User: Which sequence fits this backbone?
């Protein structure tokens, strides 16, 4: 017998579909938290004040030395997102909603992956998107200090054959992690950064796992002058178990990102203004039901992805 559609039964359908949506939503294991600091937002635009490096403790001889806290502004504008599905009301009634359960569950699963997908776009755009210092997030000439140009610049972008993870996974990790460890802050003191995460697209998964877990890994052998590669040799992996690998299925470029994610601020920001909500249009008197015979279920959210401090990440690519 077909389900009789009225206000009461439509509400039952919403309750049932809402539970299916929420159950699927909560089962998804997202990974954006592993490389993003999640920041709540209370307005359309959120302003961040990145503080210059705190120099650290020193032996107290004489009077205190006062280090002015220099704030560096960076703003993120929240974007509005939506996704919507429609279900033929007669098919729902005739089926008594059984066959539509997987559709609603797939909808919930997809919505839960929204931050992962958005942050992959942010990572991909980091070669042309500006961060707080006015440079691209991945760039070769970030200023060490915004107020003292004599302190020079630093690069968090490595490009060239030497930085191809597919040919020399251990060498790439070593180069990027050592570069990160050399970064200094406004006060001229080392930042003390230790790389702990390698993020790659699926095409580089094999090589990332080699660098992270294998006891023996291939390493490029150079000529005496160090000017060209002449072969490959198996070497002991001194970095085995030292870092985590994130295989990001939404990345497409053949580049890897080495990160320090153990500080209070991670290299990327996920700003959340409103988490996804499940919204129905199921009242039989609504136009979508009367004119188009459709149940409509939608989800909407507000948020934005962005960048924190460029010295917390190094991008490596062959080209």
Assistant:
């Amino acid at each position: 017998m077909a389900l009789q559609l009225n206000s009461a039964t439509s509400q039952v359908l919403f309750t049932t579909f809402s539970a299916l949506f929420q159950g699927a939503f909560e089962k998804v294991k997202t990974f954006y938290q592993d490389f993003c600091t999640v920041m709540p937002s209370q307005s359309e635009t959120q302003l961040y004040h990145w503080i210059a490096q705190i120099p650290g403790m020193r032996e107290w001889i004489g009077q205190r030395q006062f280090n002015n806290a220099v704030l560096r502004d960076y703003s993120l504008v929240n974007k509005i997102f939506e996704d919507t599905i429609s279900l033929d009301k007669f098919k729902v009634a005739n089926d008594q909603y059984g066959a539509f359960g997987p559709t609603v569950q797939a909808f919930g699963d997809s919505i839960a992956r929204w931050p992962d997908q958005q942050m992959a776009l942010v990572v991909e755009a980091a070669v042309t998107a500006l961060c707080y210092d006015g440079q691209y997030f991945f760039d070769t000439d970030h200023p060490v200090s915004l107020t003292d140009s004599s302190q020079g610049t630093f690069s968090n972008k490595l490009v060239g054959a030497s930085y191809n993870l597919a040919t020399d996974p251990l060498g790439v990790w070593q180069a990027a992690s050592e570069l990160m460890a050399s970064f200094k802050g406004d006060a001229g003191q080392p930042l003390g950064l230790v790389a702990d995460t390698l993020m790659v697209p699926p095409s580089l998964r094999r090589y990332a796992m080699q660098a992270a877990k294998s006891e023996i890994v291939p390493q490029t052998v150079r000529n005496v002058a160090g000017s060209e590669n002449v072969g490959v040799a198996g070497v002991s992996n001194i970095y085995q178990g030292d870092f985590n690998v994130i295989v990001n299925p939404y990345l497409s470029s053949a580049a890897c990102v080495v990160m320090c994610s153990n500080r209070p601020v991670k290299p990327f920001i996920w700003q959340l203004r409103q988490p996804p909500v499940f919204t129905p249009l199921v009242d039989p008197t609504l136009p979508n039901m009367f004119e188009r015979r459709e149940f409509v279920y939608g989800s909407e959210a507000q948020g934005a992805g962005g960048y924190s401090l460029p010295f917390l990440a190094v991008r490596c690519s062959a080209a």
Summary: Residues 276 and 301 are 5 Å apart (CA to CA). The longest helix spans residues 7-27. Residues 7-54+70-317 form a domain with the phage-related protein like fold fold (CATH 3.90.1690).
